[in-house]
Structure formats: C-alpha cells, structure tokens
Amino acid sequence: MSEGLFEGRNGSRAPRPGDWTILLVAGALVTALWLGGPAGQGSRAEVRVEDTVVARLDLRQPGTYTIDGRLGPSVLEVADGAVRFVDSACSSHRCVASGAHRHAGEVAACLPNRVTVAVRGGRGGYDTLHY
Amino acid sequence: MNRVSRLPALLLALTTLALTACSDGPAVERQRFLSLGTHIEVQTAGAETERAREAIRVVREDLAYLHSGLHPWEPGALARVNQMLAATGEFTADPGTLEALAVSRPLYRDSDGLFNPALGKLADAWGFHQDAPAGPPPEAATIEAILEADPSPENLTVDGVRMTNTNPAVQLDFGGVAKGMGVDHAVGLLREHGIDNAIVNAGGDLRAYGQRGDRPWRVGIRDPRGDGVLAGLTIEGDEAVFTSGDYERYYEHDGKRYHHILDPRTGRPARGVTSVTVIHDEGATADAAATALFVADADQWPRIAKQMGIEAVLRVDDEGVLHLTPAMAERLELKKDDVTTRIVELP
What element of type H or E holds A120? Predict the structure, then answer.
C-alpha cells in the first residue's frame, strides 16, 4: 500500500466521509480568512468613548446597543453584518446620516458625543480606507 | 500515532501554516483617537512597540495643539487673531496661525483663489462655523457684501511675528488645509522618532510612507455614493490621498441641501461635482487642491491642477461619471464595473 495523504505506514485508518468535511470546512475557513470577503467585509465593531473601548460587537449577531457618551446615549444597531448609529445625543445626527458600516477599516463617529465605532476583521486586502 | 489518524494533526498544521501566512508581516502598531475634529488612526509597521507608542503619543499631542490653535470658531489662538483682523492694523500673531498662513498663501495663488482661507466670514454666514451646521442660508445681500470686500491672504503682510491687515473683511479659516497640515506634522514627527513605515489617516484623508513589510501600503477608496470600495490604490514611497466631498458637512433647509465647499466666486456651495480625490506628496497641498478642484469649472480644473502641481486627480461629477487624469487612471484599480470613466489630460 502506498503512503497517501490519509494513510500512514503505522496502520492509520483510511479517510472517512467526515474527514473530507473537516478538510473542506478548514479550507473554506482559511480561504475566507485570506480573502476576507468582498471589499474586506468586517466581522466585528470596536466601540469607544473617548479613548476607552466600551464594547466589541459581533457583526453576525443582530442587536441594539446603547452607549453612554459625553452628551448622553448613542444607540447602535447591528444588522445584516453592518453597524450603524440609529440615534445619538448630538444635534446634527451626522452619525445617523452616515448609514451602515460593514467594511473593515471603516470608522463611524458621533464626534460631539465622543463615540466612535471602528469595523474590524476581514482582510480585504487594504490597510486603511480612504473616503 | 498508532491508532490515531494523522488527519487532525495534518489539518491543524495546515491551518496554522495558512493563518501564519495570513499574518504576513511585520509588527503593526495601530492606535486611534479623536483630534482635528475627526477620528485619527495611526498605523506603524516594523517598529519596536515602545518606540511606535511613544511616537504616536507625540503625534497625538502635536495634533491636539494644532487643533486648538486653528479651530475656526472655538475660543483659541485663531479666534483671537480673527478678532484682531477685524480691527485691521498690526498685531502679534501666534506661531500656529503664521505657519498656516505661510502654507496657505502659495496654495491660494496657485489655485487662482479657488482655495481661499480668508473667507471665514462667508463660511460663518452660511452656518458652517458650528458643530452642527444649520441654516437658514444667508441673504444674497450678505453674500454680495462679503464678495465685494474681496478678502484674501494678500491683504495680510507678515514681518516676523507681526501681522498687518488692510481688509476688515478678512477672517481666517484654515479648514481647507488643517487636516493636510496635521498629517504632514504627524509624518514629520513619526520620522523624527525613527518610524520608517506608517499611515496617518485623519477621518478618511491620509498620508502614508514606507511599506508594510515587503509590500506597499494598500488603500481602499470607498465609493462616495454607494457601498463598498470604488478602487484600490498602492502607495508609492510617501504620498497623501485627500478627498473633498459634498457629503462631508452639510445641512438641509426647506428641502434643499447645502454643503460646505463654497465657491469663492459666487459665495455659494459649488455645484456639479460630488467629490474630488487627489494624490500628492504633501498633505497640505493635497487638502487644498481637493477643495480648489472641487470648486473649479469643468474646463478649468485641469489647468488649476497643473498649477498646483497635482498630476493624479479623480473628479466625480453629479452624474456619477469619473473624470481621471492619466496619472490617476494608472494608479487606481477600479473595483466596480458599472461606472463611466473619462480620461482628462492635463495641459
């Protein structure tokens, strides 16, 4: 018997169907990590008030989060793999108007309330985003 | 591994190898903080952690100083200078204002006045000198009076730290160049502290130099009107990438949208353009040029770009057409195929 990928000279077993599944899943995982999805789809959001990280949100888990900023609450919503401000204690609401953020490297901010949200994870091939 | 399959171990090894490959590169220190009225992100590559952190700390202090000195409407050094300017005559100006004026004056001249840092009164009249811009828009007579007075940096003379003003309509607003100066300051300080590779991103505008390990820095240019990345760009050496867009600061009044990029010739928000992106080796020049080329007429901007020393320009008009100079077209890797592009030669 020749020594193939799944059989050793010490009597290792032949591959089972589950092994192929594991291999495929592992391959897909590595590929996904490498490519990071189209345009660097982010996987999490880091929320700060001033310099302090106050939350890390999983962009795969929908939810609504209230963050206490300098002026009052900022409300963040995670949905469809993106994070966005849905309300904030600022007067301009530019943060709300900036819409959904899903790409690694994007930063949304409510500057008057000193709340920033940076999308992280996902390779995407870019070190930073220009906008 | 008698009765034990080698498969899990093999998979683990392969995955570890692949993930190690994914990390491809040098130590990267990345910090972000609020300054210059926006969020700043500084990334260094290949530098010892402590050295990088100390350099970023110094950058942060410097940007805070720059921000307080050049803020156009909060109490501070520039507010005091503007009080003195309103009275005309001679007075002692602070170093930050003098530096900003020295940086801005040639950019004003090279842009044929389309970048004009002496029009602070106009920005104030439009309601942009507050954290939350708001209308109503000024009366036509107010706009005409400001334009009639023709405020410009040429009304100011500087002798050492003494500044003299001959036009009471001059009010300085360095909002069109401050972020550029900020990233230039930051890069200078990082280099002084032995950082050979870094990106300084100030609210989306950036300057980058060196590399990330054995490859260039890669920048994604976000689609200003859609989702995702419009184009990719690799940094060559030391470059600043700046964009002026009509979506950055604006308000709506009576159902009409007014953005903050004012045309010094009409006194009103410039129309016909969505965004302008430029590449240059200095942040301040790139910053001012992005503003000037946004304001410039369609048949005028290539000449203005040439005068300002800008070769790489992307101008997106209000119909979504991408107007690119050959130098920009060569650099951009477009990621969307549903866009119309036109190549525009510089004179």
Answer: strand A115-120
